[in-house]
Design a protein that fits this description.
about 425 residues, about 30% helix, six-stranded mixed beta sheet, alpha+beta, Rossmann fold
Length: about 425
């Protein structure tokens, strides 16, 4: 689970400050304020560690099939007017209960531009703690592309060579590892742990693909759900048709939440004749219809529900606008889904949303003591003269907000007062 995130001179952000990430973290704010950038920074690192080119230091994208975003060039990522011309990404993570040598760590990298125009790491540091002893490894860029290696608080480097250049942002070359000697093995384990944490991020974007009328099942479980959720149906088919101890577990869980949201009574997978094709049908108020023929809200929320039970325990799910095309009750139930799944499956949710109903229900869950302010966090992002600004929204133990930005969700009480005022004025005129 991710614990902290900080960006400096990254797109709209001069400095986010240290952003604490909880099991359920909600990002709210105005349009084009910088909310999505917080999520994109993590996906930038994910697509870098998954790059087939191990020598790349930061993969800004361009491969439509394999990359999450195309960030363009260095200038498109660097905040305008930044001095020095460097941007920084830093995060920490923790995997409690995992039987691994390294179950927590911190990553920090500062990026600049090489003479060729490519992105080049200026400084990369990985930190961890093993048996209450801290370890730190750092690579610093020198002249002509050489990198110096430092271990812990050593002031003297272990050498400076071009062959020591970091790979995929989070690793050192085999030559650098060998040069570190006995410290190299721990450094290698640490970079592998950071890589696993980034590879384990699951992202579902705001635009989900419309369903097909029927599907061919390839008799396997997909490895991913896709950024547009197009593999969600394959996950449900595998849940219904694969013979295992967990058969129907995901399908039944999704059906249960659809019922709680009052958008469907049940979801069912049906074989079409004796063919290898299957359809997903929705039961609602005694009517059975193909998924393609029901309201778009069902098909749009289906990947959101599916990813909650598809994500491996302990992973982090990044969601943008999960509430799209849902009615108010269904939107509010998403808050209950995130809190419930984060508790039972240890899945972390980082959610970018515009939904007042989702936000208000999370307040209620705090008031009901279903969750606590230690388990959820809410941030408001707004655009200022100097760039994006982040405000942590403070809830008390009764779910009351102490520092809500004016009129973000509109002035509900003000609208009610205005309506009452106009009603009385109109009735007064009508009685004359």
């Amino acid at each position: 689970m991710l614990k902290h995130l900080q960006l400096k001179n990254f797109k709209a952000w001069s400095d986010t400050g240290d952003v604490a990430l909880k099991p359920v973290t909600m990002l709210l704010g105005t349009n084009s304020s910088g909310k999505s950038t917080l999520i994109q920074s993590l996906l930038l690192l994910k697509q870098t560690v998954q790059s087939p080119d191990r020598t790349i230091q930061l993969n800004l994208g361009g491969d439509e099939l394999n990359d999450f975003f195309n960030f363009g060039e260095f200038e498109n990522v660097l905040k305008q007017g930044a001095s020095p011309r460097h941007f920084e990404i830093q995060f920490s993570y923790e995997r409690p209960g995992k039987e691994e040598r390294i179950n927590s760590g911190q990553f920090r990298a500062v990026y600049g531009q090489a003479g060729s125009g490519a992105v080049a790491i200026q400084s990369m540091q990985l930190t961890t703690s093993v048996k209450d002893q801290d370890f730190s490894y750092r690579a610093e860029r020198r002249d002509k592309g050489a990198y110096s290696l430092f271990v812990n608080q050593e002031s003297q480097s272990r050498g400076a060579k071009r062959d020591f250049a970091p790979e995929r942002s989070i690793a050192l070359s085999a030559h650098a590892i060998q040069t570190l000697g006995t410290d190299g093995a721990l450094m290698e384990d640490l970079s592998l742990a950071v890589r696993r944490e980034l590879e384990g991020l699951i992202y579902l974007g705001p635009l989900r693909r419309k369903p097909e009328r029927d599907y061919v099942w390839n008799k396997s479980k997909p490895g991913e759900i896709g950024i547009d959720g197009h593999k969600a149906i394959d996950v449900l088919l595998a849940s219904a048709l694969l013979r295992s101890d967990e058969r129907n577990l995901t399908l039944d869980s999704v059906s249960g939440w659809l019922k709680k949201m009052k958008v469907a009574d049940k979801l069912e997978v049906r074989q079409i004749g004796r063919s290898s094709r299957y359809e997903v049908v929705v039961h609602k108020d005694g009517v059975v219809a193909n998924l393609r023929d029901v309201g778009i809200g069902v098909s749009q929320v289906l990947p959101v529900l599916t990813v909650a039970f598809f994500a491996p325990e302990g992973s982090t799910v990044l969601l943008e606008e999960p509430e799209i095309h849902l009615h108010p009750l269904a939107q509010s139930m998403l808050a209950e889904l995130f809190v419930d799944v984060s508790k039972k499956r240890k899945v972390q949710f980082i959610v970018e949303t515009h939904s007042e109903h989702l936000f208000r229900r999370l307040q209620t869950l705090v008031a009901k003591e279903t969750t606590t302010t230690e388990k959820c966090a809410m941030y408001f992002v707004e655009k200022g003269r100097q760039g994006a600004k982040l405000r942590e929204l403070i809830l008390d133990s009764y779910g009351r907000l102490t520092n809500w930005p004016d009129n973000f969700f509109g002035d509900t009480l003000g609208e009610t007062r205005e309506q009452a005022k106009l009603m009385f004025e109109r009735k007064k005129r009508e009685t004359k």
